[in-house]
Amino acid sequence: MSANRAQAIDQQFVQFVRGLEPAAHRTDPSAPVREGLRLTGATLVDLVEAQLQCRILDLAARELRAKDQGYYTIGSAGHEGNAVVGELLRGTDPCFLHYRSGGLMAQRFKKDPTCDGLRDTLLSLVASSDDPISGGRHKVWGSAKLWVPPQTSTIASQLPKAVGCAVGIDRAKRLKLPLPIPTDSIACVSFGDASLNHSTAQGAFNAAGWMSVQQLPVPVLFLCEDNGIGISVPTPEGWVQRSMAGRPGITYFTGDGRDLPDAYEAAAAAIDHVRTTRRPAFLHLRTVRLLGHAGSDIETEYRSLEEIEAVERLDPLLESARLVVEAGLLTPDELLGRYEGIRARARGLYDEVSKAPKLTSAREVMASLAPLHPDQVLAEARRAPPAVEGARKAPQGRQRHLAAMINIGLQEALRKYPESLLFGEDVARKGGVYHVTTGLWKEFGPGKVFNTLLDEQAILGLALGAAHLGLLPIPEIQYLAYVHNAEDQLRGEACSLQYFSNDQFRNPCVVRVAAFAYQKGFGGHFHNDNSVAVLRDIPGIVVVTPSRGDDAIELLRTALALAKVDGRVVCFLEPIALYMTKDLYEDGDGLWLSQEVPPPGKATPWLEGRLYHEEARDLTIVSYANGLWRSLRAARRLEREHGIKARVLDLRWLQPLNLDQLEREARATGKLLVVDECRRAGGLGESIVAGVNLRCGEAVQTSLVAGEDTYLPLGPAMQAVLPQEAGILAAALELARRSGPSVPASPAGRAAATLAAHGLAGR
Ligand SMILES: Cc1ncc(C[n+]2csc(CCOP(=O)(O)OP(=O)(O)O)c2C)c(N)n1
Ligand SMILES: [Mg+2]
C-alpha cells in the first residue's frame, strides 16, 4: 500500500476516468440530467469542475507542505458534493463555513468574476499577506465580496452567530433598516457530524427552533456534512438523522453528497424552504472523508487499510465522472483534460504564491486586530442623538443612581442609533433583574428591545451575527459569572473577526454585564463574581466599568462610538452593588447620586480615567467600581484622621490599561496603592503594579490590596475576602509611612532613601 493516500486517490481517479466508455451521443447540456430533476447537464459539468478544483487544491496543499511552503492540510476530499450548495445559494447569502466546505467555495467563487478561487486559496495555504481574506493570518474559507466571513478552527462556534445573522436579516427588515444584502437573503452554516454533538451547535439548533416555533423569522440553513467520523471517533449509524429529524421548528432534508443530482435536489428544496418560509432547515449531506482528518493524521492508527481503501472507492469524484461521461456531457479525455488543466495551473502558481509577501512584523500581524481612531471615536461619542418628538425626556435636576443613569444612557443609545438592538434574558417587560432596562421595551417596541432564551452563547451569537449586517447589538449578560458559559463567543469569535478577515468583516457590539461583588443580601459566588481575567486577555477587546451614573452615560457613549467607528467589541461592566447606591461618606449625603444627565457633547475620551483630589501629593490610590467607592471613603479618613492626602484615580478602562496615566499619577506622589476588587491571581492589580514598576522603577513605591483567590461565600462572610475600607486605609497608611523616595530620586536621593529604609537616616 502506498503510504501516500493523496497519490492513491489521484491515480485511482485518473485510471477510473481512463477506463470509462465515452457515451455514444452528445447530450443537450440545457436538458435536465435525469427525468423530473432540476439539475441541467450544463450545471452538472460546472459543479464537477468545482469538485475537480477543490480536489486539486487538497493535493496542492500536501505538495506545498512537502516543500515546506504550505502550512495547512485539512482538506475537503470526499465532501466535494457540497458544491451544490455553493451553486444554489446566492453570492449575497452570508455563509459561515467549516474547513471541509471547499467544494461549496469553489462553486461560490465563480459568482464573482473578480475572484480567483484557485489562486486565492493557494495564497491562503502559504500564509501570504496577499491572501485576500485573512491577509496571511490563517488558512480560512472566506471572501469579503462573497459574504463569507472567515471562521476559526473551533468546531461549532460559528453556529450561534449564523443564527444571529439570520435573525438580523429579518429584524432589520422589520425595523425598516437598510441591509447590505437583499432582504430575502438567508444565512448558511456548515459543520461536521461530530461537531453536531457540541453543546454550542446544540444551543444554536435550540435557539433557532425556539424562535421558529414562536413565529419569529430565522432564515438559516444548517448544512451538516456527515462523513461518519470525527477525527478517529465514528458517529453512531443513523445518529444525525435521528437527532435532527424531529427538532421543533426546524425542517430536516437529506441528500447523498456523492450523487450530485440527489444532493442538488435536496439542497434546492432546503434552500427554497428557508428562503420562502423564513424558517430554519437542516440539510443532512452524506459524504465520505478521504485523506484522513489532516495531512498529519495517520489514519491507519484507527482504521484498517481495507477500511481506508473501501472508503476511497466511494470517492464522489468517481461518481461525478461516471455521470458526466455516461450522460454524454464530457468524454473521458475532456474530463481528464480539465483535471490536468487545473492541476497544471495550480502547480504553475506554486512558485509565485510561495514568493508572495508574508507578514513579517508584530505590527503587520496586529494591523487588523483592533483598529483605533480615538479622535473620530470621541467626535462620534459627542454627537447628539436626533431630537424625537414625543420621546421620553429625562428631567434635569433630579438625583439619580447608577442604574437609572444607565437606563437613560441606553435610551439615548436606542434613539441615536436606529440600528441598535437591546436584548437578553428578562430585559423586555420586566426591565432586567435590576430594572436597568425598565421602560425601554415599551418605548422602543419588541422589534428593538426583546427577551431572549436562557442561553448566553445564543445571546452573544445573536449579537455577533446581527452585527455582521451593520446592526448595533447591545446584548445583556445577567451576571459576570455567566459570561463563562459563553466566553468563547467573545474570545474565539467576536474579537478574532477583524483579525482573521483583515478588518473586512466586523461584529461591533457593546456587551453589558451586571458585574462584580459586594451585593448585600443577595449573593454568594454566582451573583458576585469578581474576576475579569478571562476577559482582559482577549486580544482586541475593550473592557470598561463606570462607578457612578454620569460616568456611565459618558462611557457608554464612547463604548458605542468605538463599536461604530472602529468595529470594536466592548464589554461594559456594570457594578451591581453600586446600581442603587446613593451615599458616599455618610448616610443621606446623596454624594453618589448624579445631579444631572451629562449634556450631549460630553463623553469619556479613549482610556481616560477620572481623577479625584488632584491637589493631593502624599499618595495615589488607583481603583475602579466598588473599590473606587471604598477608596474615596478611605482617602477621606486618611486625611481627616492622619493628615495624609491621597489622590484617587478611577481607572474606568480595565482593558487596555492606560499605563501613561497610571505612570503620571503614580509619579505625582511617588507612592501607588492599587485597590483591586478582583481576585489577586490574574487580577488587574498585578498588571498595574508590574506595569508601573517597569516604567518607574524605584521612583514609585507600590502596594496592592486585592480580593482573595477564592470563590465568594454566601452572606456576610463574603466581605472577609474582598477589599474593605479598613484594609485600604491600613495599606495606604503603611505605604504613606513607608520610608524611601516618595519623590523621583536622584542617585543621591536614592542613597538617602536606602539609609532611611534601614533606619540610618540622619546619622
Ligand atoms: C471545540 C473544539 N474541540 C476540538 C477540536 C479538535 N477537532 C477539530 S476537527 C474535530 C472533529 C470534527 O469532526 P466532524 O465535525 O465530524 O467534522 P469532520 O472533520 O469529520 O469533517 C475535532 C475534535 C476543535 N477544533 N474544536
Ligand atoms: Mg465527520
Structural class, from secondary structure content? alpha/beta
Query: How many E-type strands?
Result: 19
Report low-confidence residues grouped into runs of 5 or more.
742-763
Q: Tell me, rounded to a whole number, the average pLDDT.
A: 95
Question: What's the gyration radius in Å?
Answer: 30 Å
- Shape annotation: elongated
Percent range of helical residues: 40-55%
Bound molecules: thiamine diphosphate, magnesium ion
Largest sheet: 7 strands, mixed
User: What is the quaternary state of this protein?
Assistant: single chain
Give me the side-by-side strand order of the main sheet.
9-8-10-11-13-12-17
End-to-end CA span: 89 Å
Descriptive account of the structure:
Helix content is 40%, strand content 12%. The protein is elongated, with a radius of gyration of 30 Å. It is α/β, with parallel strands linked by helices and 763 residues long. The C terminus is likely disordered. The structure holds thiamine diphosphate (TPP) and magnesium ion. Thiamine diphosphate binds next to strand 2 and strand 4.
